UniProtKB/TrEMBL annotation:
Amino acid composition bias (Low complexity), ranges on this chain: 334-346
Highest taxon listed in the record's lineage: Bacteria
Organism encoding this protein: Herbidospora galbida
Compartments, as annotated in UniProt: Cell membrane
Family statement: Belongs to the autoinducer-2 exporter (AI-2E) (TC 2.A.86) family.
Any one GO CC term of the record: plasma membrane
Topology in the lipid bilayer: Multi-pass membrane protein
GO biological process, one term: transmembrane transport
Protein name, UniProt field: AI-2E family transporter
A Pfam family assignment: AI-2E_transport
Residue numbers spanned by region Disordered: 314-346
Compositionally biased region (Basic and acidic residues): 314-324
Length: 346
């Protein structure tokens, strides 16, 4: 219970660190261009919000235009499937299909009360999600604006161990930045390729599906199975099983190229986990925090994995500087010691 309650704070803070790693290069560039920290931070936040808002507006308009056509295509595909069940090798009767539909309807009606409770719970979750988004934006803003000052204040609590903690924190931040920027690049390539394939097949809602694949790429292994499955169902419902098989083939090939070319080349050594470790980390993150927990589970584990060796490692001992020899004394000038003594005074 305590872990579930704390997740409403820890998850937004963890996601804020991911967003900070993604947006900090923009803020840093603006600061080098002469912007004050407050202005650079506000500009970065407004640009990010404008990009997300514009993308959501375009996708929403496109989905609103294409959704009726998708429904009509799915209805036609359902009629084709029904005809195949009647005339195909299964030779089902219409009464059997009607019984199946009636049973499915009955199961839905029996679960109506549970669905209603879920809707009420979903309203509560919506309020909690809005509060978490506000916390996320506040944390991201102050990390972008005062991240170095916050880190310096944090280090003062460790006294003599501050140097060791500082090295661990900087190693963790480099890992997080590398992971986030590399994952965003890989996800963008993945979404672009799949979006082009879906658009070439004239699949409705290809743009929202490409965005879904982009965000699902942040959940290793599991995310692409979910997003790819949804896209395959849409392709099957709108274009038939032939196009669906072709899309699955393209998805498998593209996924192999991502795993063996893009991930090692772009993300590099920021994440060196065995697939079994990734599955376990995703399972723990999903149980503790749902989808958001699965998103942050892998980068958080990678950060801890890179920071622990720096905490254990002692500061390297600098070799002693070589002792410089004293400069040689100047030699006496020739004939200075042979001068004749002065004679007696007269």
């Amino acid at each position: 219970m305590i872990v579930a309650r704390l997740s409403f704070v820890t998850l937004p803070v963890a996601i804020a660190f991911l967003l900070t790693a993604l947006l900090y290069p923009i803020t840093s560039r603006l600061r080098r261009a002469g912007f004050r920290p407050i202005y650079a931070t506000w500009t970065t936040m407004l640009v990010a919000l404008a990009f997300i808002g514009g993308l959501g507006f375009l996708i929403g308009n496109r989905a609103n235009d294409e959704f009726p056509g998708l429904v009509a295509q799915i209805q036609q595909t359902a009629r084709d499937v029904q005809a195949w069940l009647l005339t195909g090798p299964l030779h089902l009767r219409e009464a059997q299909i009607a019984d199946f539909v009636e049973e499915l309807t009955r199961q839905i009606n029996e679960q109506r009360s549970q669905i209603t409770d879920t809707v009420l719970t979903g309203a509560t979750a919506l309020v909690e999600a809005l509060a978490a988004i506000v916390l996320l934006l506040f944390v991201t803003f102050f990390l972008l604006k005062d991240g170095d000052r916050i880190w310096g204040w944090f280090l003062r609590a460790f006294g003599g161990a501050a140097d060791r903690v500082d090295r661990a924190g900087r190693a963790a931040w480099r890992t997080l930045s590398h992971y986030v920027l590399g994952t965003v690049a890989v996800a963008a390539v993945h979404a672009l390729v799949i979006g082009i394939v879906l658009a070439g097949m004239r699949v409705p809602l290809w743009a929202p599906l490409a965005v879904l694949i982009f965000f699902a790429s942040f959940i290793p292994i599991v995310g692409i199975f979910f997003a790819g499955g949804v896209a395959t169902l849409v392709v099957f419902g709108s274009q038939g099983w032939v196009y669906a098989l072709i899309f699955v083939g393209v998805l498998v090939v593209e996924q192999q190229l991502e795993n063996h070319v893009l991930q090692p080349l772009i993300v590099g050594r920021a994440l060196e986990f065995h697939p079994l470790a990734i599955i376990i980390v995703l399972a723990v993150g999903g149980i503790l925090g749902g989808i958001a927990g699965a998103v942050v589970a892998v980068p958080v584990t990678a950060v801890i994995y890179r920071a622990l060796p720096e905490l254990r490692r002692d500061r390297p001992v600098e070799p002693p500087r070589p002792v410089e020899p004293d400069p040689p004394e100047p030699e006496p000038s020739p004939g200075a010691g042979d001068a004749a003594p002065a004679g007696p005074n007269r």
